[in-house]
Structures are given as structure tokens and as C-alpha cells.
Write a structure and sequence with these properties.
Length: 230
């Protein structure tokens, strides 16, 4: 085998081995907890997220998944179906339209104490030559609807990799292993696109982002026994 070709294949194989993992998480948060504690919202309106990903269903998934961790944290969260219907009745048809509504107007329509604004940057299966990963990247901002003041901001980057995407031995030696890995990654992407794996990753990412007892998360709400303990 040509030395240059062998070197190229070796680099790819080593790179794949270094990157194969069950998942990865990167989380960041920035909150004025003094303002959060002063506001102490009891109810939260989750706005339909802005979608910068290629997955058209991503906003519905993330909006629905956001209600659970916030409810567990101790807040009354407006049901997604009710929220969508109220927006339509007020002539608000898109996520961008919803995000453009003033805090005062949102409070008039829903009577909520705070609103959660989210933006989806990445969502769904991605093919990366020798592996396939399912990823979600979401940013969120909690705003006091009485004052318009930002109470909390966070960002999550989460990805999971199917456990069967790995370099393994077999016929063809090193070259055969690399080819097998690439084929496996392509199959994984197709399967992940057709199943609810993206939903699972979106749910996990949203939960990690919004759970109250997580690092840099929201504070506990009045319906949680740990309220005002943070």
C-alpha cells in the first residue's frame, strides 16, 4: 500500500477512536439571581422557540419538552396547546411573531409572571464521516413580564452517539475497519432521522438546561418544597 494512503487512513482511524463516545454536554449560564429572587415568578409562559436548525419539527419538540423540568422546578407552566391557541386567536402565527410581542402585551394576554424565550441552533442527526451523532443546541432566556427584565440565561450543547457506531476489527484490516465505520455511521444517521432519537436528545438537552438543581439552572419555584432555599 502506498505510504501516503496508509498515513491518511491511519489518521482517520485514530481520529475516529478519539471521538467515539456515548455523548457530550456543554452547558453555560448567566443569571442575575438577585433579580430572579426579587421577582420570584410563580408562572412561566414558554414561547415557541426560534428555529435556526434544519429540522422543521424542532420547535414543537423543544417547547413541549421545556414544560416538564420547569413544572418539576415548582412553576405553573402554561400548556403548549393553550399557548398556541391563544397566540393564534391574537393573530400571532409564527415563533418570530411571538418573540416580537412586548412583555407587557404577553402579560395582558396570558397573565404570566415570566416568559421563556428559546432559540434552537442545532437539532437532529449529523453524519461525521466515521460516526453519526444526534445533537441539540438550545439557548434560553427567562424574562420578567412585569418589568421586562432578564432573570436568567442559559445555553446547552448536547450530543449522543449510538453505541453501535465504533471501529472494530474484521475483514480488510485497518482499511476495512475504516470503511465499516463509515458505513455504520451512514446507517445510524438514516435510522436516527426516521426514529424518535432526536426527540430523546432534545428532551435530555432541555431537561439539563432548565432543571433547577443543575449547575447554572433556574431557581426553584413556589410549588417546589425547596422554594427559597436557593
Amino acid at each position: 500500500m502506498n505510504k501516503n494512503i496508509f498515513y491518511f487512513i491511519t489518521v482517520f482511524a485514530v481520529s475516529a477512536l478519539l471521538f467515539v463516545s456515548c455523548g457530550s454536554v456543554s452547558k453555560a449560564g448567566n443569571a442575575d439571581y438577585d433579580a430572579f429572587r426579587e421577582s420570584r415568578p410563580a408562572s412561566i409562559l414558554v414561547l415557541p422557540p426560534l428555529n435556526n436548525s434544519v429540522e422543521v419539527d424542532a420547535p414543537n419538540v423543544i417547547q413541549a419538552c421545556a414544560t416538564y423540568p420547569l413544572s418539576e422546578a415548582g412553576y405553573y407552566v402554561f400548556p403548549v396547546g393553550v399557548t398556541q391557541q391563544m397566540f393564534k386567536q391574537n393573530g400571532i402565527q409564527t415563533s418570530a411573531d411571538a418573540h416580537a410581542v412586548s412583555a407587557r402585551r404577553l402579560r395582558e394576554i396570558f397573565g404570566a409572571d415570566a416568559a421563556l424565550y428559546m432559540t434552537i441552533t442545532k437539532f437532529g442527526a449529523q453524519y461525521q464521516v466515521l460516526r453519526s451523532v444526534v445533537e441539540a443546541e438550545v439557548s434560553a432566556t427567562l424574562v420578567d413580564l412585569k418589568t421586562g427584565k432578564e432573570l436568567w440565561k442559559g445555553n446547552i450543547k448536547h450530543q449522543e452517539e449510538p453505541s453501535n457506531t465504533k471501529i472494530s476489527g474484521g475483514s480488510g484490516g485497518l482499511l476495512g475497519s475504516v470503511v465499516n465505520a463509515a458505513v455504520s455511521a451512514a446507517v445510524d444517521q438514516a435510522v436516527n432521522t426516521l426514529t424518535n432519537k432526536s426527540y430523546d436528545v432534545g428532551r435530555n438537552a432541555t431537561s439539563m438546561l432548565l432543571t433547577a438543581d443543575s449547575s447554572k439552572g433556574v431557581l426553584y419555584g413556589p410549588r417546589n418544597p425547596k422554594y427559597e432555599s436557593d
